[in-house]
Amino acid sequence: MTNFLKKEKHDLEEVIKYQNSLIELDKIAKMLIKRDLALTDSKEKLIKEKGKVDAVINSLTDGLIMIDLEQKIILINPKAQSILNVTKEEKLIGKVLSELVNFPQIKELYEVLAKTEGHCREKQCELILKESIEKIYEMQTTLVVTETQETIGTLIILHDVTRERLINKMKSEFITIAAHQLRTPLTGIKWSLEMINTGTITEEEEKEFLDKAYQSNERMIKLVNSLLIVSHLDEGRFVYKFFEIQIENLIQEIIENFKIQIKNKAIKCIFDKPKIPLSKTKVDLEKIQMVLENLIDNAIKYTPQNGKIIISLKENNNKIEVSIKDSGMGISKENQERLFTKFFRSTEALKIETSGSGLGLFIAKNIIEAHGGQIWVKSKEGRGSTFYFTLPID
Ligand code: ADP
After folding, report:
1. Neighbour tally for 82: CB within 10 Å
2. Which residues of the chain have pLDDT under 50?
């Protein structure tokens, strides 16, 4: 082979080699593009998944904070920000808890964590934050451990239990007062029965004690009924059945039922019945009767002998207004504010009339408001009171 041919062959072999390398490179490039596409795909999937997790964390109704082993905040959701009274602009991520003492709520959180030995324990404790009202949070701390069993920080969950605690407190107060109230008539019955049991009293005295026991029993039934109503009201289990009625007829009937008490106290009771019948109103008859009975009963109870009660009615602005005016002991300004709360009884009322529960006006307010009406009082101490309530016509 000539030198020329030898060179030609060598060149050709080089070209083939080069071509093969190009094919190889093309293959690699295609593989890389494929891998890159797969990576982009996984990255997109990851971003989507992260978006979902973020959305869940952000919409949690509990506060969520995660701190790393150096107590640096690495996650805080909007609910936790609002609980700790910080805004998004405060940029808490990456900051150490102990350095954030300017934020009073974070300081509290840090102190509670420190007391419970911080992030090294799984604990449940209470965080009490003083805002306009006191807020109580159940604080649950949990260690965050990876699949390789490495602890990377602590998750703090803040759950608002303010309402729960308030209800529990109210319930135990309710039980204490209810038990206290029931003790008086029960003691009355016990005492009467003991006297009868001695066998040393006259027939007349025996009749008197039996009558007292009967009155105490009646009081107890009334009280238990009121307590049941209040507990139904508190649980939202007070059911209303509405019917159209003519309110002046109902008032007339109720006054008739109080005839004996009115006569016994020589009270002048005037029913200022409208000349023209008022529009009918849709009410739960039994419950409005309860309200009217309570207001008229109070007017009689807290008005001395020879007093005066005037019951009036008027209709305007699509509502009926009922007023019950008495010439009794009246109510001080201070007591007027507490009148419609559970178990309230003024000290003056307690002296005059021992058999009250302080639940009547609380129940009345609930009933009237459930009808879409309002109830209020105008009074001056020693100069009588007027109770008003309204009922919508529609
Ligand atoms: P009770 O009459 O059983 O005590 P209420 O809830 O009906 O319970 O009334 C609560 C308190 O409001 C009474 O104890 C009394 O102090 C006051 N009160 C209610 N009505 C009158 C009234 N007409 N005049 C003066 N005080 C009243």
Report:
1. 11
2. 118-120
